[in-house]
């Protein structure tokens, strides 16, 4: 059971220093109720059923209620069937649920992009236009986001230490929450002109792909692990002015991603782990609500690889020392204002940590 109460008080909020009025949203807290509240209650039940010696069923059910949108039923059914002691088939279907945040529902809160990730304005003909900055207003009429998630896969666990999986997944979204591409209007403050947008529900979106993993020991001191994901679909239907719709990428994800690591037990206490992540091509979308650039002047991102190095040293008193470096070759990928296609990739970084186990 989960009970969560949230309260957002914007009595002293000044809309990020800009001045305007639109509908029920205003930079002046005296114009509308600055307090937004939400009470969420969730009840969840899951049970493993050994149907046969080989078949395990896992049904689940959840009831969510919130005073802002009422109740929602969700749940799922997963199954695992052992073909042999080494091979297993797994599958399942489940309904997921996500309620809007208080910031997205508040009529008082204004998200100011400052030019970073400014949503596009798309007219009925599919033409693009935007100012250098914009604001995204709250929407107290938002619906909860739901999805139907399906997957089926096969797993292998051999006596020789080899473990491998291959899974197909397909997720259908309804009312996905994101900033709208429909411009409400514009205003000028301090010499800067802003487009106005609002948090909204995207009626339909779909994500599907294949993911796999492979792990095995290489002798007594080395362990190899590789996993990857290939995206088949990642798109949404965006409504245009006039009632038409277009298809666009749901998010800027690589066509494929591969992760690999080699764990080396250098001594009884010291483990060294070099690893990498390889990203495939990322297709840019002129219709993405989080993409920079203007008038479709966007670029696809070419594949690239990041390399990391980590180590762990185990002391005999329960302390573990960890340290390492990420992006050790300092691959620099930056988002720019002109032709931006995705996001900044952090450059080389170092870390160190100490853990005590009781």
Automatic annotation (TrEMBL):
Q: Name one GO cellular component term.
A: cell outer membrane
Q: InterPro entries from the entry?
A: Beta-barrel_TonB (IPR000531), Beta-barrel_TonB_sf (IPR036942), TonB-dep_rcpt-like (IPR039426)
Q: What is the membrane topology here? A: Multi-pass membrane protein
* GO biological processes: siderophore transmembrane transport
Q: Which intervals hold domain TonB-dependent receptor-like beta-barrel?
A: 12-328
* Protein keywords: Cell outer membrane, Membrane, Receptor, Signal, TonB box, Transmembrane, Transmembrane beta strand, Transport
Question: Family per UniProt?
Answer: Belongs to the TonB-dependent receptor family.
Instruction: Name it.
Output: TonB-dependent receptor
């Amino acid at each position: 059971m989960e009970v969560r109460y949230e309260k957002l008080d914007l009595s002293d909020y000044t809309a990020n220093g800009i001045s305007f009025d639109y509908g029920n949203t205003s930079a002046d807290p005296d114009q509308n109720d600055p307090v937004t509240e939400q009470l969420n209650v969730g009840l969840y039940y899951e049970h493993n059923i050994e149907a046969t010696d080989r078949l395990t069923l896992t049904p689940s059910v959840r009831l969510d209620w919130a005073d802002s949108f009422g109740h929602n039923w969700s749940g799922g059914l997963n199954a695992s069937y052992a073909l042999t002691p080494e091979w297993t088939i797994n599958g399942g279907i489940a309904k997921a649920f996500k309620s809007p945040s208080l910031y997205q529902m508040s009529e008082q809160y204004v998200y100011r992009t400052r030019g970073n990730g400014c949503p596009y304005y798309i007219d009925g003909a599919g033409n693009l236009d935007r100012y250098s900055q914009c604001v995204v207003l709250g929407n107290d009429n938002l619906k909860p986001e739901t999805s139907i998630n399906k997957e089926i896969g096969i797993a292998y666990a051999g006596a020789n230490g080899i473990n491998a999986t291959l899974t197909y997944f397909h997720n259908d979204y309804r009312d996905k929450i994101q900033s709208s591409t429909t411009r409400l209007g514009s205003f000028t403050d301090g010499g800067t002109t802003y487009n106005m947008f609002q948090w909204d529900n995207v009626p339909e979106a779909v994500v599907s792909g294949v993911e796999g993993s492979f792990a095995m020991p290489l002798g007594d001191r080395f362990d190899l692990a590789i996993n990857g994901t290939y995206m088949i679909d990642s798109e949404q239907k965006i409504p245009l002015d006039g009632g038409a719709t277009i298809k666009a990428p749901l998010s800027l994800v690589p066509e494929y991603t591969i992760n690999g690591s080699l764990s080396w037990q250098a001594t009884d206490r010291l483990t060294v782990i070099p690893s990498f992540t390889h990203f495939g091509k990322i297709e840019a979308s002129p219709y993405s609500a989080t993409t920079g650039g203007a008038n479709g002047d966007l670029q696809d991102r070419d594949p690239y690889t990041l390399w990391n190095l980590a180590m762990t040293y185990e002391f005999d008193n329960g302390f573990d020392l960890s340290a390492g470096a990420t992006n050790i070759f300092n691959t620099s990928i930056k988002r720019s204002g002109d032709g931006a296609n995705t996001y900044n990739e952090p450059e080389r970084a170092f870390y160190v940590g100490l853990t005590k186990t009781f």
